[in-house]
TrEMBL record:
Organism: Mycolicibacterium litorale
Entries under InterPro entries matching the protein: ARB_07466-like_C
Ranges of residues in domain ARB-07466-like C-terminal: 86-179
Domain of life: Bacteria
UniProt protein name: ARB-07466-like C-terminal domain-containing protein
């Protein structure tokens, strides 16, 4: 069987000739894209309860992501356990202790739950950040920096108050004096409840 000439198509049963449509030239190949940065992303719940997303759906269904957002893990780093014993601490107090440990590596001791006449330490609502050489210029400066850091992050930490070198601090600044605490920074939080063990604390 012979093929028809490329320039024409002969209709079966008719004596009509027409020219074939020109073949379009192949589209130019775009240049390769530059390598994208290697971002490490995770999907976390939006709103106050953040954690890894569970996007399991039934076969044939699509997952709705309206209540999820993508978090850049390169920016939002998980905090490792710090120098404080976390036994009996509430979640906001753990967040403060881990954050202080990460930001101020010169801190070697943070006290947490202990017996006390007031409920803050026994209930896991407070930590004591022990300052090395607390009466030295360096020690005083370090304590001041920790208080400033906690006040700056007061909302995230659920900060209720801090006490350092006789001064009582609230999220709005200093209030009153004569409160002791010359060798450590006392930090009280609103707690946030006791951990379940599934929490991830972010810097």
């Amino acid at each position: 069987m012979l093929a028809a000439p490329a320039a024409m198509v002969i209709a079966a049963g008719a004596d009509v000739h027409r020219e074939a449509e020109p073949v379009a030239a192949p589209a130019p190949v775009p240049p390769p894209l530059p390598d994208a940065p290697d971002y490490k992303l995770e999907v976390v719940a939006s709103g106050p309860a953040a954690g890894p997303a569970d996007l399991k759906v039934a076969p044939g269904q699509m997952a709705s992501v309206s209540n999820w957002r993508v978090a850049d893990r390169a920016v939002r780093q998980a905090l490792p356990v710090g120098v404080a014993s976390e036994r009996g601490l509430q979640v906001k107090t753990i967040l403060v202790a881990r954050s202080v440990s990460a930001v101020f590596p010169e801190i070697r001791q943070i006290g947490g739950v202990r017996a006390d006449a007031l409920r803050w330490h026994p209930d896991g609502l407070a930590v004591d950040v022990m300052i090395p050489n607390p009466s030295s210029a360096e020690g005083i400066a370090l304590g001041n920096q920790i208080v400033a850091y906690v006040i700056k992050n007061a909302e995230r930490f659920g900060m209720q108050d801090a006490i350092w070198r006789g001064v009582y601090y609230t999220p709005n600044g200093p209030r009153g004096s004569g409160n002791g605490h010359f060798d450590h920074v006392h930090i009280t939080t609103t707690g946030g409840g006791y951990p379940t063990g599934s929490e991830t604390y972010f810097r």
